[in-house]
Design goal:
With 366 residues, this protein is of the alpha/beta class. The chain is built from eleven helices and 15 strands. Belongs to the GTP cyclohydrolase I type 2/NIF3 family.
Amino acid sequence: MPTVADLARALETAAPLAYQESYDNAGLQCGDSQAEITGVLIALDCTPAVLDEALSRGCNVVVAHHPVIFRPLKSLTGATEVERTLLKALKNDIAIYAAHTNLDNVRHGVNRKLGEKLGLQNLRILAPTSGNLAKLITYVPPTHTDAVLQTLYQAGAGQIGEYSDCSFRSDGVGTFTPGSATQPFQGKPGQPETTAEQRVEVLLPLHRQKPVLRALQQAHPYEEVAYEIVKLENENQEVGAGMIGELPQELTPAAFRQQLRAILGVPVVKHTEYDQPIRRVALCGGAGSFLLNKARAAGADAYVTGDLKYHEFFGPEGDLLLCDVGHFESEQFTSELFQELLTSTFSSTFAVLIAETLTNPVRYDF
């Protein structure tokens, strides 16, 4: 049976912990990483009520979007809901795993799921990151180039957008003199050697640098492998905050807000006044006020997010339709995302269930 560690690896392959924000605390929150999984319950938040549901449905793992442990704990006495949640989980051998801003920040994460639900096309990241890519350059005898590249691809290199197994190679000549204690792939110790080589280049996510270099060392035929890591400042179109896309056809602001209410199941949408047609839509699940200027700069007709403050509605008035649909409501489809990811990875080895317990603390009166 798969273990909690296997589940963590699957989730961190889809949403690497390296892509979480500095303030975040994604990953395994509590529990035995070597415990075998009997079932997984998915929720936006992990609460004592969610743990009760997990117990009743035979699940010993809860996967949540929001971390239970978000700030450092000074005690574990049950004085707060966070402490009560952790104590209940520990007493009942339930592991809690959270994928938060790392799942927000990947291209196929929380915001893409919301964009798809809203029917947006040509979805792309609104605020791509930079500084997390590098170029790996190495030099390989032509007879081994394909084998080395396949190993690098499997270790996580060579991905550009929707294209995998990407590389560049060029022919050249390498020179070297093996030392007396060497066993060279070609040539003899102490004698200068000239040989045909190929310069091979692949794109490398920096968080995969160590495993990719290990793979390179294992696959390369040389005793001493020459390579270069060149850090890039390119924008990473696979990682970043928010999403932007286009509606299949223009809608009036009123029709767009009605569509938001219907798709998200929200009774109200807080919004600015705006009288232009809506076609290009930017969005950010959760609290997204920090992306408002990015949405305006990208030419969005509407920006959909949650947790907006009163004064934040003043700036964009007349520039775009600013919509606050609520934090929970904008992230509610994250549970489906988790379920799809885990069922595709683990097939039918254990049940992957979406919690029926409502964790949204916000209520509306009319």
